[in-house]
Amino acid sequence: MTYPPIMHRPAFEAFVRTLPAATIVHQWRDDSVAKVGGKIFCLLDRDPGEIWLKVPDMSFDLMIEMDGIRPAPYFARAGWVAISHESALGEDDLRAYITEAHRLVASKLSRRLRSELGLDAP
After folding, report:
1. Does residue 51 lie within any of the structural domains?
2. Matching InterPro entries, A to Z (predicted)?
3. Which of 51, 72, 111, 112 is close enough to 80 for a disulfide, judged by CB 3.0 to 4.6 Å?
4. How many domains does the chain have?
5. Is residue 121 part of a domain?
């Protein structure tokens, strides 16, 4: 099975950078970690090739029942899933979940920080 392009570092990082005030850092095992306002909203775990991201509580319970998706190690208690290339989700689905993770985390930032980052558009 081939990986959806978004699961490769260049495509993942390029997409994340299209989201408002999103940044990428390489940390831990040189994973691509996406942040907004200094808070992580998703990451590309290059080994074993998974996208880890924050999802709404209801989605978490449903998603971890799907093949190729599991609770994200260390992050599951905060509602994160790890989506492998073996899941049935396509590239458009992955992009939508990354966008939602960004929105969820950005919405928890302080009003002042959201304003500084230009996230509270009129």
Report:
1. yes
2. YjbR, YjbR-like_sf, YjbR/MT2646/Rv2570-like
3. 72
4. 1
5. no
Q: Is residue 106 part of a domain?
A: yes
Q: What is the CATH classification number for the domain harbouring 94?
A: 3.90.1150.30
Q: What are phi and psi of 107, to 5 degrees?
A: -65, -20
- The answer to whether residue 21 is domain-embedded is yes
Q: Give the domain extent around 89.
A: 5-116
Q: What pTM does this model have?
A: 0.92
